[in-house]
């Protein structure tokens, strides 16, 4: 028996090199498109603006810096400040709605009446206003904006897992430099942002959203005694319970009412203890959506609450049409700085809140003059920053900059002749315009880097397409692989050794790849690209899918469009099958043609299509609502079980548990049918146990999570153990299966005599090429030979290990995704199985040879590609940051990772891109399914290509390693190519529409999710190719040893 040696690494290296080169282009594009704001590392000092002269029509007022503690730039209004940051305190959580009765109020309404009481009792000493946050509304970015007065850039959202020290000038450093003593309590993010700045700190791990009380209780245990001390100037208390309650339960849960009432008591106690020399500032850093999420820019996410109070304040109400005027969050920085007598941070863009400077000791005229001095200092600081920022080569829109210069000229020529009101109006207009100008062009796009990145991605896509449709000349095969590897090393070496001028390096890399293609053109033998009608239409549908990236409406509606295109592609696959049975020269609707068309396989395909329609339709129940989908009504599927009413928890629990059992039963039933669950091989024994044990632990995990809130204080310590055991079991199983991947059963010689006749009657039980040898030996009189083995499971020997790994991965994904999504995963699995069955029937009945069956069509790859996108949406995701399932970070963990956030980031990524992982890893099934199913269900393949080879099933790939290699290369590259094309169009759309109103809300997030999805897809495809080659290698070794044994 002459077995060729299967190239164990050639396919892997080929796909790895092309994917990596494409990712290099992606990184160049991202570096130019997602630039962070240029930070100027200059600081404000007390010596700045030593004298501000304000001339009015009546008198001249001079304010000089006195250089003593508490008076810098201008005299301080307060000696101390108490800052209570109630994370995620939405404005309507704090505002009292008088029209609501207690019984009609939602859990988050009218639970903090302390604000109403203080406003009614002290209308001039208290002020409540909407506090508008800038997107992204993640806690880390909000803290940066609230302390520097600057606007966060979009890419900063990616750093929410890793607190980086703020080096830009900020209010904390200004307070420290002016010898102010700061005490901080609560969220440990403060220590990451400002290490070593605080006089005292009592900080607690903040990332465990399942924990509502640890941080808050920690703050309360120290707040009162810290306020009673004399050695502090600023106290910061950062409460997290409201935010965590929103993530865990949503705002409309009784737990939210309890948490808000607790905060109400805290505010009342602190306000009652506030002294005359102290200002109390209470605010939320962001709001939350109806589901308790945040990160985007919807009104619910950006409209937080701000409350100011001091017994000596004398504030006037600021309202418009009966509604309190909103305050931007960056306005807090200059207001707090001047109120405490410290310089405004250098890069601040906020406008001072004038009310915070008006105290009872000032006359109205003096108060107005003081406000004017403060505005003048604010303008000088912003003006200095804008000119310094522009001097570094940054550009502002010409029309807005001209308006800025006009206002600057107004401040110089005859400005003193204007009234106080008119002067304040000019200052306010200047500050508003400056901020608007920076918002418009904050992220400076590097067009050269973007263009070079797009060029390199485009060339790699062309190279991938060429290799997909070409065949290497056999003699030069290894040499070309090595040269492609050298090309990858050279391109990467450019950026490692010469880390300057990325745009130029990108162009050089594109030129090198182009020259490589040109000089190696003779190494390829072009295969005639024969596209069937179904292939052409499927590719056209994919192209339309990609072109939709240029439309914001399409991106918003992509989940609907993908479902439609998926079903359309499946219908297109069936058209050739129906036409195949049509009799030529006779009307399609004649009785003869109807009889020919309505055969077993055609009717089966109709039922399969109905099943796909039903499963895709049912999966829409699990879609999550985007903010822009105003017609979409959020359902309870994505609400954690603890957030459901008690009467619905049992229904949810047992429904999810039944779906989980189905996830394990379906693959197991298939492997039993194929004969892969016989014998006592290690993989078989483990698969009999591991999935069942994992299901039991997940059931226990869900039960512990669903325990009533007032009983589960101790349960939280144990709820992490079942997931951890499942993680360990899964890793162990995959590792052991990689070492010994075969799931076949070789009957011992003693049992062969009783089994050999059944093998002769049904050779498909044995399957491989060995079948012929064994039967011939038996027929020539060797019936008593004891060395003739019977082997079960060879028809599916390659796919069986993939199916078992898929099963344990599905279990982990379901555990991380949560109980509510489990039925969606089952529907996705059913949809994939039915799509494979349709592909099998179509390929067997339209193929001209066995090679056509082994090598999948473009239409089959397109369907698998669209399934991966459909799965992304059907598991409750969107290309928006608020749709991220942050709760996945705590499955098996309580939130204390000792400074490393790799584990939570990985778990959130596993949840978000689970569909890309599943369909990338199971990609070889597109090649293997026709061979396996054609043997197990021979009626599906018909008799067109009946031969001895067909009965081998997947074992045919062992005897035909070149065909196996070509099929894996083709399916791997074509699938990666489709994802690369979609990412390329998404990047191109983001670039072309970079000045579009919705670029940061729709197009940039869409690009980022596509980019991360492509990387995850590439890794999953490479893992599947490597594992498949490992299976084939072990199978070849086993078959060669067995062949020599029986020959």
Automatic annotation (TrEMBL):
CDD domains: GPI_EPT_3. It is found in: Endoplasmic reticulum membrane. One of its GO terms (biological process) is GPI anchor biosynthetic process. One of its GO terms (cellular component) is endoplasmic reticulum membrane. Pfam families: Phosphodiest. Keywords: Endoplasmic reticulum, Glycoprotein, GPI-anchor biosynthesis, Membrane, Transferase, Transmembrane, Transmembrane helix. It comes from the Eukaryota. The keyword Coiled coil does not apply. Pathway: Glycolipid biosynthesis; glycosylphosphatidylinositol-anchor biosynthesis. Gene3D superfamilies: Alkaline Phosphatase, subunit A. It is a multi-pass membrane protein. The chain crosses the membrane at residues 12-35, 454-474, 494-517, 537-554, 560-578, 598-616, 651-671, 683-704, 724-745, 790-815, 821-841, 885-910, 917-937, 967-993, 1005-1027. SUPFAM superfamilies: Alkaline phosphatase-like. Coiled coil: none annotated. One of its GO terms (molecular function) is mannose-ethanolamine phosphotransferase activity. The keyword Transcription regulation does not apply. PANTHER family: GPI ETHANOLAMINE PHOSPHATE TRANSFERASE 3, PHOSPHATIDYLINOSITOL GLYCAN. Belongs to the PIGG/PIGN/PIGO family. PIGO subfamily. This is GPI ethanolamine phosphate transferase 3, catalytic subunit.
């Amino acid at each position: 028996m002459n077995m060729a040696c299967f190239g164990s690494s050639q396919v892997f290296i080929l796909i790895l090199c092309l994917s990596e080169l494409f990712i290099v282009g992606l990184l160049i594009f991202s570096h130019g498109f997602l630039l962070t704001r240029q930070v100027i590392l200059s600081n404000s000092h007390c010596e700045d603006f030593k004298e501000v002269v304000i001339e009015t029509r009546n008198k001249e007022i001079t304010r000089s810096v006195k250089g003593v503690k508490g008076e810098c730039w201008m005299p301080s209004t307060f000696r101390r400040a108490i800052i209570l940051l109630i994370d995620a305190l939405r404005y309507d959580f704090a505002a009292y709605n008088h029209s609501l009765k207690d019984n009609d109020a939602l859990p988050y309404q009218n639970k903090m009446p302390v604000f109403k009481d203080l406003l009614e009792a002290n209308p001039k000493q208290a002020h409540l206003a909407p506090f508008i946050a800038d997107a992204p509304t993640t806690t880390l970015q909000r803290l940066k904006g609230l302390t520097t007065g600057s606007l966060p850039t979009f890419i900063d959202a990616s750093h929410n897992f890793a607190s980086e020290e703020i080096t830009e000038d900020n209010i904390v450093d200004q307070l420290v430099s002016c010898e102010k003593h700061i005490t901080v309590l609560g969220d440990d993010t403060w220590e990451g942002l400002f290490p070593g700045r605080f006089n005292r700190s009592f900080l607690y791990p903040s990332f465990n959203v399942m924990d509502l009380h640890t941080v808050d209780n920690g703050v309360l245990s120290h707040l009162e005694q810290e306020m009673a001390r004399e050695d502090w100037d600023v106290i910061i208390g950062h409460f997290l319970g409201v935010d965590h309650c929103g993530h865990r339960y949503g705002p409309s849960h009784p737990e939210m009412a309890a948490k808000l009432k607790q905060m109400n008591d805290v505010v009342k106690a602190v306000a009652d203890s506030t002294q005359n020399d102290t200002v109390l500032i209470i605010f939320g850093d962001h709001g939350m959506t109806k589901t308790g999420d945040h990160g985007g820019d919807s009104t619910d996410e950006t409209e937080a609450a701000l409350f100011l109070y001091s017994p000596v304040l004398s504030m006037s109400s600021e309202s418009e049409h009966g509604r309190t005027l909103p305050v931007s969050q960056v306005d807090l920085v200059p207001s707090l700085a001047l109120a405490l007598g410290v310089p405004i941070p250098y890069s601040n863009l906020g406008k001072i809140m004038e009310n915070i400077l008006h105290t009872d000791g000032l006359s109205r005229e003096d108060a107005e003059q003081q406000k004017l001095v403060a505005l003048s200092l604010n303008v000088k600081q912003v003006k200095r920053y804008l000119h310094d920022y522009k001097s570094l080569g940054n550009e502002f829109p010409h029309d807005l900059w001209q308006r800025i210069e006009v206002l600057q000229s107004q401040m110089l020529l005859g400005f003193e002749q204007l009234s106080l009101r008119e002067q304040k109006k000019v200052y306010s207009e200047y500050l508003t315009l400056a901020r608007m100008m920076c918002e418009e062009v904050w992220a400076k796009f590097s067009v050269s880097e973007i263009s070079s990145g797009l060029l390199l991605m485009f060339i790699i896509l062309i190279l991938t397409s060429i290799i997909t449709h070409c065949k290497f000349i056999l003699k030069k095969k290894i040499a070309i692989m090595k040269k492609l590897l050298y090309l990858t090393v050279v391109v990467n070496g450019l950026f490692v050794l010469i880390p300057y001028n990325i745009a130029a390096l990108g162009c050089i890399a594109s030129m090198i790849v182009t020259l490589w293609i040109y000089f190696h053109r003779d190494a390829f033998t072009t295969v005639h690209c024969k596209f069937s009608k179904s292939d052409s239409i499927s590719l056209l549908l994919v192209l339309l899918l990609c072109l939709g990236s240029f439309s914001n409406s399409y991106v918003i509606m992509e989940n609907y469009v993908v479902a439609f295109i998926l079903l359309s592609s499946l219908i297109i696959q069936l058209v050739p099958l129906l036409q195949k049975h049509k009799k030529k020269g006779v009307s399609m609707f004649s009785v003869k043609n109807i009889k020919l068309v309505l055969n077993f396989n055609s009717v089966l395909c109709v039922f399969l299509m109905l099943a796909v329609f039903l499963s895709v339709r049912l999966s829409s129940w699990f879609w999550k609502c985007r903010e822009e989908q105003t017609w979409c009504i959020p359902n309870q599927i994505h609400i954690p079980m603890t957030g459901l009413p008690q009467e619905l928890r049992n229904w949810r629990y047992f429904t999810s548990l039944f779906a989980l059992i189905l996830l394990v039963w379906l693959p197991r039933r298939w492997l039993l049918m194929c004969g892969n669950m016989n014998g006592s091989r290690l993989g078989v024994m483990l698969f009999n146990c591991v999935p069942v044990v994992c299901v039991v632990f997940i059931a226990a995990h869900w039960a512990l999570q669903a325990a009533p809130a007032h009983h589960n204080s101790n349960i939280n310590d144990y709820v992490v153990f079942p997931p951890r055991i499942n993680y360990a079991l899964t890793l162990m199983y995959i590792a052991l299966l990689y070492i010994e991947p075969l799931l076949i059963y070789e009957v011992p010689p003693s049992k062969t005599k009783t089994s050999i006749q059944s093998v002769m009657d049904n050779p498909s039980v044995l399957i491989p090429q060995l079948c012929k040898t064994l039967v011939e030996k038996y027929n020539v009189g060797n019936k008593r030979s004891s060395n003739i083995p019977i082997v079960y499971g060879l028809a599916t020997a390659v796919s069986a290990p993939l199916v078992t790994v898929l099963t344990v991965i599905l279990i982990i994904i379901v555990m991380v995704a949560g109980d509510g999504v489990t039925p969606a995963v089952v529907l996705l699995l059913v949809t994939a199985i039915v799509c494979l069955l349709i592909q099998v029937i179509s390929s067997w009945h339209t193929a001209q040879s066995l090679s056509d069956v082994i090598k999948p069509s473009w239409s089959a790859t397109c369907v698998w590609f669209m399934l991966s996108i459909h799965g992304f949406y059907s598991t409750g995701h969107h290309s928006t940051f608020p749709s991220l399932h942050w709760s996945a970070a705590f499955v098996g963990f309580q939130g204390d990772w000792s400074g490393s956030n790799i584990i939570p980031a990985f778990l959130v990524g596993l949840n978000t891109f689970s569909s890309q992982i599943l369909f990338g890893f199971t990609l070889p099934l597109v090649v293997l399914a026709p061979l396996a199913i054609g043997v197990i269900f021979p009626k599906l393949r018909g008799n067109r290509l009946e031969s001895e080879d067909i009965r081998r099933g997947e074992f045919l790939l062992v005897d035909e390693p070149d065909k196996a290699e070509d099929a894996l290369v083709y399916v791997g590259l074509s699938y990666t190519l489709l994802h690369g094309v979609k990412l390329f169009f998404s990047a191109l759309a983001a670039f072309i529409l970079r000045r579009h109103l919705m670029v940061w809300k729709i197009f940039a997030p869409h690009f980022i999710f596509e980019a991360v999805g492509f990387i995850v897809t590439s890794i999953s495809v490479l893992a599947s190719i490597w594992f498949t080659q490992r299976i084939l290698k072990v199978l070849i070794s086993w078959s060669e040893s067995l062949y020599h044994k029986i020959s």
